[in-house]
Amino acid sequence: MRIGQLAQSVGVDTQTIRFYERQGLLPPPGRQENGYRVYTEKHVERLAFIRRCRILDLSLAEIHELKRYQDAPHQSCTAVNALLDDHISHVRSQITALQALEKQLVSLRARCNDDREVKACGVLAGISEGSMHQQ
Amino acid sequence: MRIGQLAQSVGVDTQTIRFYERQGLLPPPGRQENGYRVYTEKHVERLAFIRRCRILDLSLAEIHELKRYQDAPHQSCTAVNALLDDHISHVRSQITALQALEKQLVSLRARCNDDREVKACGVLAGISEGSMHQQ
DNA sequence: ATTGACCTTATAGCGACTATATAGTTTTAA
DNA sequence: TTAAAACTATATAGTCGCTATAAGGTCAAT
């Protein structure tokens, strides 16, 4: 299977595949005489795994780490769970920060009832005054 | 006032100040004979405004846009409010996406009760299987 | 013979900084 | 007074995860 077919079957751009290879995330495939990359089913699985990790918003570094755990299948999986726990708390703190931000933005927005002159706009005034609490 | 003092009074790195200048966000200050930048109170206010916008997670492009509105103080401020409304809905959709992600991660995490072998780890199995719903 | 679809590498761009290298200037302390 | 520390300047590269572009080689069909 060539790169275009792999790309299509996993739903990824060919550039992204070459990028993952350069990053050491996807093992270098064989080559045809003309230099074209040749992939196997293993590559399909591996690439799909990477993509599912990315959907979970794991970083490439974290995916690397997971790969290292997979390569030592008889070790305890504590580290895998720890990685996930860390990631979950990361996501949760992002949510918390964004919720605080939303609140701030909504209260700023409430300072202006449209159609004033820019000069009198409560929103701009609100930002300029610095009547903002640090998050 | 020199760059270091400006940096300290607003709580920004000097590099960031020079970066904002290059981006056209902060007007180029005067220079001493030795080439050192000399800032005024206007620069302090302007930089503080930029920082408060950044705390609200507005992009540099959005801050540019706000600046253009400020430069036309007699226009209607509808566009200012629209910018903020757009930003609020952007933040809200980020929150929604992250909440869905959190849910997915938590359910994945529930598939493993620590201390198994990596080989039998429900978390890794869960990612590999592809038993994931697209967000 | 040429078009078009595919493949190759190399390089630059995104956003908002941050870090590093190299050098000149000013201030402070021994 | 001199030497070190602290400040300033510019230019350039790195971060992250791609995405885009350029410039070319390969292959099948028309």
TrEMBL record, chains A, B:
Report the PROSITE patterns cross-referenced here. Answer: HTH_MERR_2
The protein's superkingdom reads Bacteria
Coiled-coil regions in this chain?
Answer: 91-118
The HTH merR-type domain sits at 1-69
Could you state a single Gene Ontology molecular function term? DNA binding
Matching entries from Pfam families are given as: MerR_1
Name recorded for this polypeptide: Cd(II)/Pb(II)-responsive transcriptional regulator
Origin organism of this chain?
Answer: Idiomarina aquatica
Report the gene name.
Answer: cadR
